[in-house]
Amino acid sequence: MKRWTWVAIIALLWSAFLFGAGWITRSYVAAVTAPEPAPAAAADTNTIPLLDEVWAHVRAGFVGEVPSDTVRNYGAIRGALATLNDRWTVFVEPQPRSMERDHLRGEFGGIGVDIALNEEGKIVLTPNPDSPAEQAGVRAGDILVAIDGVTLPDKPDFAEIAPRVRGTAGTIVHLSVLRNGQVLDFTVIRTTIQIPSVEWRILTDTQHASAVGYIAIHQFTERTGDEVRQAIEELRQDGSQAYLIDLRDNGGGVLSAAVDVASHFLDGGVVLIERKRNQPDITFPVTTDGSTRAIDEPLAVLINSNTASASEIVAGAIQDRQRGKLIGDKSFGKGSVQSIYDLSDGSSAHITSAQWLTPNKRAIDGVGLTPDIEVTRAADEAGQGKDSQLDRALAELRNEARN
Amino acid sequence: MDASQPQPQPIQSGKGNTIRNVMLAMAGVFIAVLIFIVGLTVGAAAANGFRFTGSSAFPVVESATGTENSSTGSINVTLMNDIIRRLRSQWYGEIPSDDKLTDGALRGLVSSLGDPYTSYVEPKYAQMLEQDMTSKFEGIGATLRQTSGGAVQILRTFENSPASKGGVLPGDIIDAVDGTKVTGLSTVEVAALVRGTKGTTVTLTLRRAEKPKAFDLTLVRDQIVIPLVTTKTIGNGKIAYISLFDFSQEASTQLNTRLQTLLKQNPKGVILDLRDNPGGLLSQAVDVGDTFLKEGVFIIERDNKGNEKRDYTTDKGIAQDIPLVVLVNSGSASAAEIVAGAIQDYGRGKLIGETTYGKGSVQLPQMLSNGGQLRITIQRWYTPKNRGIHGTGITPDFMVTRTTADEQANRDPQLDAAVNYLLSGKAPAATPIPTVPATAAP
Q1: Which one of A51, A322, A386, B442 is most buried, by most CB atoms within 10 A?
Q2: Residue B393's pLDDT band (boundaries 50, 70, 90)?
């Protein structure tokens, strides 16, 4: 299929990383603010003067390696945030923050190369078909030894590699690789690499001659709304008579993407309500873009215990608005909104800034959404290629189509 | 504080009587913290509920520029202030008080040192530690340690103590004391909460592996009376046995008095039992070492500026030649490890039992301007052959274990092996473990 280009493979290539980043995708984002200029030095007295006092003692007497300023400052910040007792209010260091930023945008400037650690702790490259990396001459199995002329240490830190290879599209990165005992240098121009967040296909049933448009959403990035629109357009062209949205194992993402996705399936009205501390509730209505909508066809949504946050916004709206049935397991139950604040050194703070409620003002935090039809997928089903939740959803949709 | 007299923790009997009173929850402080104290990390925040956690994808890394290595005097004000300002304007919940934020930031700062023994004690707990010295000898009779996850765990309970009679078991995790959640607190702080006057009650909320839910135990505090030195003769009267509870002020005097009496019976050998001895005063360790060792270097102490200090034994000991076995186990810590390590280094006697705890460092308590306390590791200890104890412990010459089943059945294979070795010269059944060679100075 055409949409499964090498771009899609990039998604797989990053999948290990992104799954690792599950906690980020679960906490979705209400607002991303730009770094503010540092406040004037004169006015900037230490909010916590005891930090300096303690550090003076440490420097005077501590036996052992004293950590760098960065490690120390981050430690103090983490300690302060820990007093909030909120697992979603966290400090994110610059490198993971830059990866997270790419991830939430759904695209980044890169060269289309898979990176992996081999048994000796070296970085092994595998370029994707037609990617800038392949076009520049990188071959599968090349060992990365330097980036932009900076030689990697014997045992490189894996997490550091991707952020250094990535950069703004159109800029250049120099890679040195080891191949058959020879060092080869490549100059690669970065391009925009998309991270698809949605997969779709028609599920046809020859017995009943019905076509269901299946849309699996893996996370909510800034591009997810557009991808879902494209999915509906193509599936409709292919004769889809009903839609099945799969939100299983979708940990969430960007709040506005959840609103966009829900808006494709709802005929106006409310998607969610945001409640901040000591402020009037804010209603998020369906976005009026709606040229491509699927508001009449039968609809069902698959959820499970890893369906969280932005996913629960979509599922909750569809359930409250009685637009379709939720099928599967009870969802995770994350009803808080985090704002991401970028800080002066590239790190960021995720701060829980609001709770959200379903259109019927249900608070789902710690509770989750109860499916209309509870179906559990047994642990061994995946191995046998079975999916009882999907089967049940298809049966429901056919039933509805017939009535 | 005189550097020659590092005091692992401020615990003193203060009394010269033969029976010694100790608040054993405080003794737990000796043994104190095992492995890590971690602040809230990205990984920890991620761990819940997902099949894949963020910890491997987001290791702790330095800033993108990654060039900082040196440490300057003051803290980066901009970042901290920025975050606190945004918390005040945006956070959904109730903002903690400035004092609480300060406590958290200090804990985080201290944990960035990566040293499990360096800790911050909040003002209210520091106050409790300061007041009423007598209550240090009254409590529940248990020792504490910090788990790798940062929880406070019961390490040991003492016979006939309120803890053991009340059903507290080693391994229990303390969730709360009298309803106060102790998550994130250090052992010193938890000990301060548990401690109290004889006759008063304390309610512990505990978690235990086999129990699905946390449960409460209410205990009546009591005076904890533990003999400092215990002696007996065994092996048909041929072996003198002497055990030392800890290295407090009276340790050496009492040990020498009692040993003198034992030696009059002309035993074939002496067993010095340092199992579960959590340590104490370095001066007492030197004096106890002096009893058994000839003249020589006993311990090397190093501080953060590379200064080295040595303490020496003399030729005055009353048991310099008699065959000697030292019993050690994983509860032998600090001063106990120094004594055992020196005896092993000089080949003065064999060590039988299990690898020791591995705490070869000294913490100096410092009062802070907010009334809190900072306990910084200011010295590390090395054996005469320059072996570091920190983190590794001392490996016995003969590894012999004593299981819980042995304890319940009143069997003591370690003691049996020691007696057998002294009487017959035969090594215990277990494979002898070669002595670790001396290492270079760090």
Answers
A1: A51
A2: very high
Report CB contact under 8 Å: B75, A72: yes
Q: Do A345 and B79 touch (CB under 8 A)?
A: yes
| Chain A residue with the nearest C-alpha to that of B59 | A159
Q: Tell me, what's the pLDDT at A290?
A: 59
Percent of chain A predicted with pLDDT > 90:
70
Whether residue B233 lies inside any domain: the answer is yes
How does pLDDT run across B138-154, given as a tens digit for each residue?
889 888 887 877 789 99
| A345:B107 CB<8 A | no
- Beta partners for residue B243, in sequence order: B230, B273
**Cβ contact A64–B377 (<8 Å):** yes
Q: Do A352 and B77 touch (CB under 8 A)?
A: no
The residue range of the domain holding B220 is 19-37+118-225
The full DSSP string for B253-281 is HHHHHHHHHHHTT--SEEEEE-TT---B-
* Distance (Å, whole) CA A55 – CA A72: 9
Q: Which of B334, B350, B361, B397 is catalytic?
A: B334
pTM summary value: 0.75
Does B69 lie at the interface with A, CB-CB under 8 angstroms? yes
CB pairs under 8 A between A and B: 289
Of the three residues B225, B240, B255, the one that is the final residue of a domain is B225
Residue B131 lies in a domain: yes
- Is residue B424 annotated as a catalytic residue, yes or no? no
Kindly state whether residues B200 and B305 are assigned to the same domain.
no
Does one domain contain both B31 and B175? yes
What local confidence, expressed as pLDDT, does residue B53 receive? 20
Fold that domain A198-402 belongs to in CATH:
2-enoyl-CoA Hydratase; Chain A, domain 1 (3.90.226)
Pick from A225, A5, A205: nearest CA to A105:
A225
Helix, strand, coil percentages in chain B from 3-state DSSP, rounded to 5: 25, 25, 50
- Which residues contact residue A151 at a Cβ distance below 8 angstroms, ignoring those fewer than 6 apart? A145, A176
Max distance between CA atoms of chain A, in angstroms, equals 80
In a domain? residue B111: no
Is the backbone of residue B132 left (phi > 0), alpha (psi -120 to 50) or beta?
A: left
For residues B180 and B244, state if they share a domain. Answer: no
CATH no. for residue B151? 2.30.42.10
Which residues of B66-165 form beta strands (DSSP E)? 119-121, 138-139, 142-146, 152-157
H/E segment holding residue A192: strand A191-194
For residue B359, indicate whether it is catalytic. Answer: yes
Q: What's the CATH number where B397 sits?
A: 3.90.226.10
Q: How far is A381 from chain B (nearest CA, A)?
A: 17
Cα separation, B281 vs B11, whole angstroms: 9
- Chain B residue numbers with beta carbons less than 8 Å from the beta carbon of A37 are none
pLDDT reported for residue B73 = 59
Reading the block at residue B334, the tokens are: 């600090």
Contact state of A93 with B364 under an 8 Å Cβ cutoff:
no
Q: How far is CA A183 from the centre of its chain?
A: 36
B chain contacts of residue A38, beta-carbon cutoff 8 Å: 78, 82
Q: Residue A51 carries which side chain, given as an amino acid letter?
A: L
Q: Cα–Cα distance between B57 and B219 in angstroms, integer?
A: 45
Calculate the CA A56 to chain-centre distance: 41
What is d(CA B232, CA A86) in angstroms, rounded to the nearest whole number?
Answer: 56
What are the phi and psi torsion angles at B68 (to 5°)? -75, 130
Dihedrals phi, psi of B142, to nearest 5 degrees = -145, 155
Here the ipTM equals 0.79
Residue B10 lies in a domain: no
The CATH-assigned architecture of domain A107-194 is Roll (2.30)
Number of domains, chain B: 2
Domain-ending residue, one of B210, B225, B240: B225
Q: How far is B112 from chain A (nearest CA, A)?
A: 5
